[in-house]
Specification:
177 residues; alpha+beta; 3-stranded antiparallel sheet; globular
């Protein structure tokens, strides 16, 4: 029997920035960017150091940032802990998939890749409820509802017969050009 699930795809803006960096991590800005940050952001004019004629500004990261090796783990841990606190159970084979048993003897599933979440259940209200909880914690998300979604750069269509159609047209066009 094919479950006709209500599906939504969401994107959490600035996902990594929700997680706090738990190590001492320095980032360096050079030359023009160091000038810009010192003059316009810090309003100090000369908070940078010079080495071999290059201006350098060192900053300590307080939050996870895209590009840092540990950031993905910090974000995954934060999202996982949030879901576990709401009675979701992480899949033992894929830690980016979580299920929650619902009182109606059904379940809700969330799978994610970085900040892109796919949420589905037969129970439409359960999907809307977890979206409200996610937005209360992480801010308003971009979301799409229905049978057609853009997820992780793919066009995805959920068909009535239970099949799924996927396209990557823009990638193909880009490759041809």
């Amino acid at each position: 029997m094919i479950e006709k699930r209500f599906t939504t795809v969401t994107d959490i803006d600035g996902a990594y920035l929700h997680a706090f960096m738990d190590d001492f991590v320095l980032m360096v800005f050079k030359d023009d960017m160091a000038d810009f940050l010192c003059k316009r952001v810090h309003n100090t004019g000369s908070s940078y150091t010079c080495k071999s004629g290059k201006k350098l500004l060192y900053v300590r990261l307080k939050r996870a940032l895209y590009g840092c090796l540990k950031s993905a783990m910090l974000w995954w841990r934060m999202l996982s802990e949030f879901l576990i606190a709401d009675s979701f159970v992480l899949n033992p084979y894929d830690p980016c998939v979580a299920n929650k048993a619902l009182p109606c003897d059904k379940q809700i599933l969330i799978c994610w890749y970085v900040d892109g979440l796919k949420i589905s259940s037969i129970n439409k209200d359960a999907v809307k409820e977890i979206i409200k909880k996610l937005e209360a914690r992480f801010g308003e998300m971009r979301k799409s509802f229905g049978k057609k979604h853009d997820y992780l750069g793919m066009e995805v269509e959920l068909c009535d017969d239970g099949s799924v159609k996927m396209w990557i047209r823009h990638h193909i066009r880009e490759g041809i050009e």
